[in-house]
């Protein structure tokens, strides 16, 4: 079914043909909710992919939008999923994926920051990033400046609504000078930029910034070195998931092989079928199968 204006077409795509372009973490509760909704009412919106044929001619696709829906289909044991297929470059696919994450009601702050950082690394100007993501230019400019300064804690505070972007920029401008930071905080309070709960949240962010450094989730590299326990746990969990997936895939392949072997045994016990194979000069099979179909590994 073609979509209007040649934008793309809706097709059924095998799950194993789709590679994830911009993977992101998702909470178990959120994911369970997606699976439950799809199981009860079906897929309301198709995923979006772009074709990337392989050198050997195999059809492959990059996922642009809909990672949660794709993984939910995998969890439900589905083999295919409805997908809007569009022809775009890798760069445009990445921007579309980033824009989709920004548009979500509950995007993770680090995802947005990571996306903007990648656009900066690709050489985009702040105005171009603003236009492509739909974000306000001043906001984009401030985010980019804070990214350059490595102010991850302040950036997350802005994204979660803990402090306004202009206050974060002022605090970042004060650097590591505690008196200057406190003066910036006082100025924000007196100007009305910070009031009540926001003031308390801003103080908490500043305390963490002073104690643990500007980067969230990790201690300052000037005080500590090596791998954090959080990183180790996450790496271990990822490896467990990978190994579990490999075991499941191996078991599934083994089951399919057993079905093929049993089917061949039954077919080859039929003399008419064997005569047909001989007439077509199909008198051999891969050694791997022959050893399982016949104990002596003989041919037809």
TrEMBL record:
InterPro entries: Chromosome_partition/occlusion (IPR050336), ParB/RepB/Spo0J (IPR004437), ParB/Sulfiredoxin_sf (IPR036086), ParB_N (IPR003115), Plasmid_RepB (IPR011111). Coiled coil: none annotated. Residues 11-102 form the ParB-like N-terminal domain. It holds the Pfam family ParB_N. Belongs to the ParB family. This is ParB family chromosome partitioning protein. It comes from Paraburkholderia tropica.
């Amino acid at each position: 079914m073609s979509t209007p204006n040649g934008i793309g077409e809706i097709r059924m795509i095998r799950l194993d043909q789709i590679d994830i372009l911009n993977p992101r973490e998702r909470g178990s509760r959120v994911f369970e909710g997606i699976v439950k909704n799809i199981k009860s009412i079906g897929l309301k919106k198709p995923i979006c992919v772009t074709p990337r044929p392989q050198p050997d001619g195999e059809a492959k696709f990059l996922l642009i939008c809909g990672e949660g829906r794709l993984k939910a289909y995998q969890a439900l044991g589905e083999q295919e999923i409805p997908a809007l297929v569009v022809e775009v470059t890798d760069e445009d696919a990445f921007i579309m994926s980033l824009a989709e994450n920004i548009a979500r009601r509950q995007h993770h702050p680090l995802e947005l920051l990571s996306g903007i950082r990648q656009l900066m690394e690709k050489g985009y100007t702040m105005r171009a990033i603003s236009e492509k993501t739909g974000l306000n230019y001043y906001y984009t400019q401030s985010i980019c400046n804070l990214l350059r300064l490595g102010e991850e804690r302040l950036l997350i505070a802005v994204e979660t609504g803990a402090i306004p972007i202009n206050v974060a920029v002022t605090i970042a401008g004060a650097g590591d000078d505690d008196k200057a930071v406190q003066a910036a905080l006082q100025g924000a309070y007196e100007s009305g930029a910070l009031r009540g709960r926001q003031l308390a949240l801003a103080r908490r962010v500043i305390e963490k910034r002073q104690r643990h450094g500007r980067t969230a989730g990790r201690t300052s590299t000037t005080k500590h070195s090596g791998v954090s326990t959080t990183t180790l746990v996450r790496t271990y969990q990822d490896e467990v998931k990978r190994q579990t997936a490999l075991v499941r895939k191996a078991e599934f392949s083994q089951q399919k092989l057993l079905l093929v072997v049993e089917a061949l045994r039954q077919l080859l016990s039929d003399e008419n079928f064997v005569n047909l194979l001989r007439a077509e000069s199909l008198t051999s099979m891969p050694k791997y199968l022959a050893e399982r179909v016949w104990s002596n590994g003989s041919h037809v």
